[in-house]
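Section 5: illustrative case.
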């Protein structure tokens, strides 16, 4: 089964004017099936830039409720609902994210339509996963990896990376996380290829891994790690520092 992972964008949440979009990706199989990993507010532009549209979106994974990961669901929900050639997209997400998705992120713009009121089930086929559960798409099993992205002091904001195997490639996709070597080291060591979000700003936030932290990882881990989710501007010398490099918008990775 030939498969490739293409980054619709590789920028941070607020990337503007850098020929880049938010870091959402699409997994494509040789049978034409496509699986969208996160669906941010840039999605209609990033899909169009690769010659795709809402008609190509049938299956979506959502990692957490920040708008660069869920803000495009209104676009996908409305366009597929009112396009008679489209079915209802499948939406895979953790139960704790599913519980808040409609009321806290989507209802304000999507609940009222001409002639009635709707709910999330009118737009998407929801597949909500409990703790420790996996889901399967096209015979590929995906494991949700709990992340430390935002810590309020009393709780961790629900956020999940993905670990999955395609052909002989074990893939870890971090989505958004703080630098968390202790929490994630098992997946780092098991993976054949790692895609990790990476800030490069001179003013680091407390909720993402920064390049200066990631460059301290063991050499064997950096040697299989691509960096994405970065701000516009000059990039650090990732290859010199032992990484595979920074992902570019539209870059495609063959999973063999």
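Designed sequence:
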């Amino acid at each position: 089964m030939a498969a490739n992972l293409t980054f619709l964008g590789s920028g941070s949440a607020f990337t503007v004017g850098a020929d880049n979009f938010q870091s959402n990706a699409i997994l494509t199989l040789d049978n034409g099936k496509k699986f969208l990993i996160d669906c941010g507010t840039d999605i209609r532009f990033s899909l169009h830039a690769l010659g795709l549209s809402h008609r190509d979106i049938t299956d979506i994974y959502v990692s957490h409720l920040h708008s660069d990961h869920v803000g495009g669901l209104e676009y996908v929900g409305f366009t597929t609902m009112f396009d008679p050639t489209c079915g209802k997209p499948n939406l895979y997400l953790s139960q704790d994210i599913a519980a808040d998705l409609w009321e806290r992120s989507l209802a304000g713009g999507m609940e009222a339509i001409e002639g009635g009121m709707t709910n999330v089930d009118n737009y998407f086929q929801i597949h909500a996963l409990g703790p420790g559960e996996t889901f399967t798409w096209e015979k590929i099993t995906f494991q949700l990896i709990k992340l430390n992205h935002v810590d309020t002091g009393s709780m961790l904001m629900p956020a999940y990376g993905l670990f999955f195997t395609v052909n002989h490639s074990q893939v870890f996709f971090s989505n958004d996380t703080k630098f968390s070597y202790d929490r994630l080291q098992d997946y780092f060591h098991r993976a054949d290829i790692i895609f990790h979000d990476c800030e490069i700003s001179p003013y680091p936030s407390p909720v993402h891994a920064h390049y200066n932290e990631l460059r301290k990882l063991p050499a064997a881990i950096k040697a299989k790690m691509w960096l994405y989710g970065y701000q516009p501007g000059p990039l650090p010398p990732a290859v010199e520092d032992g990484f595979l490099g920074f992902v570019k918008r539209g870059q495609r990775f063959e999973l063999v």
